[in-house]
Amino acid sequence: MTKKVAILQSNYVPWKGYFDLIRAVDEFILYDEVQYTKNDWRNRNRIKTQTGVQWLTIPVRQDRLGQKISETRVADSRWAARHWRTIANNYARAHNFEKYAAMVEAWYGEASAYELLPDINVFFIRKVCAILGITTPITSSKDYELEGDRVERLVGICRQAGADVYLSGPAAREYLDETLFIDAGARVEWMQYDGYPEYPQLFPPFAHGVSILDLLFNVGPEHSAFMRAR
């Protein structure tokens, strides 16, 4: 039986494509034992507002050079209340806001207690997966032996996980050596993120690259019609 895995850093309330990737595999491995990078998706994401797309950013501490994502701590616990206030102010008129508002507000209340960024990210990822009906097991790279360069580490995780297929995002085409996976008994498949249908979204023009919360608040239980995994 073929086993397909994806290996990816945790992101803050990711966009719909992130969850499509999780749904498409047999095991999703969070890869937070790598260096934290500024101005990335680890501690921030975007929502729609009356004035356009807006970033929601969790303030973090960078305590040392080469700090891992798994070591990155929150700098100000007030981020959660601020983020929820911004979300509520901008999505109050969304068709399904009332359906999810109390639940998502409670998520933010609970997330405010976490000190580590990846704990916040994993918390939201698991909560959203439950809403979307995604049952893929989510594990962590810290449970695997990590050796070699960045590609060799991915190959090593695939080998240890017993994977026959590694599903990668398209950005990795620039550096991924597929022959290393083949030598380890796995093949690489590429996730495609084009062709998503638009849905009724507040504040046109339409934007695909926003947090999954936008999809939930706007279309609610019909979310599956605007997502697909390849």
- Strand fraction band? 15-25%
Identify the strand order in the major beta sheet.
7-2-1-8-9
What's the helix-strand series? EHEEEEEHHHEHEHEH
State the assembly state of the protein chains.
Answer: single chain
Count of separate DSSP helical elements: 7
Kindly state the percentage of residues in helix. 25-40%
Q: Looking at the structure, what is the overall shape? A: globular
Features:
single chain; 230 residues; alpha/beta; two-stranded antiparallel ribbon; 7 helices; globular
Description:
- By secondary structure, this protein is of the alpha/beta class.
- It has one domain (4-226).
- Helices cover 34% and strands 16% of the residues.
- The protein contains seven helices and nine strands, in the order E-H-E-E-E-E-E-H-H-H-E-H-E-H-E-H.
- The protein has helices spanning 16-23, 79-91, 97-111, 117-132, 150-161, 178-183, 212-219; strands at residues 4-8, 27-30, 44-49, 52-57, 60-61, 73-74, 138-140, 165-168, 187-190.
- The protein has a five-stranded parallel β-sheet with strand order 7-2-1-8-9. Strands 3-4 form a two-stranded antiparallel sheet. Strands 5-6 form a two-stranded antiparallel sheet.
- Helix 2 (79-91) runs antiparallel to helix 3.
- The protein is globular, with a radius of gyration of 18 Å.
- The two termini are 18 Å apart.
